[in-house]
Amino acid sequence: xxxxxxxxxxxxxxxxxxxxxxxxxxxxxxxxxxxxxxxxxxxxxxxxxxxxxxxxxxxxxxxxxxxxxxxxxxxxxxxxxxxxxxxxxxxxxxxxxxxxxxxxxxxxxxxxxxxxxxxxxxxxxxxxxxxxxxxxxxxxxxxxxxxxxxxxxxxxxxxxxxxxxxxxxxxxxxxxxxxxxxxxxxxxxxxxxxxxxxxxxxxxxxxxxxxxxxxxxxxxxxxxxxxxxxxxxxxxxxxxxxxxxxxxxxxxxxxxxxxxxxxxxxxxxxxxxxxxxxxxxxxxxxxxxxxxxxxxxxxxxxxxxxxxxxxxxxxxxxxxxxxxxxxxxxxxxxxxxxxxxxxxxxxxxxxxxxxxxxxxxxxxxxxxxxxx
Length: 372
Fold this sequence. Notes:
The chain is α/β, with parallel strands linked by helices. The protein is 34% helix and 21% strand. The chain contains 9 helices and 9 strands.
């Protein structure tokens, strides 16, 4: 068994190495999204054949069992060139190997590949959460909490001790005295909490390709942040000339159009943070994705005021990703550079320009590389 475990461990390391080797391809093409379920994803690895034993019914002449001599022919091995025969078949070909990888492993591989630093929660952002744990047994309780095994055990002990147990007819009937019920204790545990607020421009200049870039990048950002925090909440905001909070499905599938007023999203974001996520208790990560086109200079000024007064001071990091679009001016990222000392050690504003899907990996590194 020890040798088998060693071989299995070695195979898992080979799989991890192959996943790491192709991780950038999976990130940019979004092949892992949509396969998520139960905190696992299925990754196709067509380059690897799983190790297995295979019975060979051919008469090998004693090699493998019985006597064999150096130089004896073993016949043609599987995959070696030889004379073909027969007609073309109709059966299915071999399938690519799919391996299950947990999101925790995926986050670890992402951190290794992009050399991401571990995030240190800012300040003492620990909130105490209370939950009930069923840790004991008692004699009274509702039927919904009845513990069948413990009840049966008590009834069996009573039946045997009173001499009423018949091995030929092992009937055990619990009485009220035998009943046992699960009981709970309320436990308090500190938990590091983070909130991620995704804001996306859904005006007419943001097409399907731009939204796909946002979807892929958001998935990987979530994967990493969830590996760093025990508790995390995600909120979604879409905006054109007005902003509204939506669920995850709407965020990734909406096809709205119209003008652009970025300040509407920032105002809604600031309101959510003020009402639900106090700075003392939460690590705050707002992300905004846009093509950089805004309605007016006046609205841009309103955006900068909201960022400076209400969002950036309480956020671990404010991240703005500008997705290149043939219909957007791309001006907003320039305005942000003018108003914030981007790149300074004490500046928590991070900017990234995303020209196409091939730039997603670099953009993730831009956003997560600071380790805030």
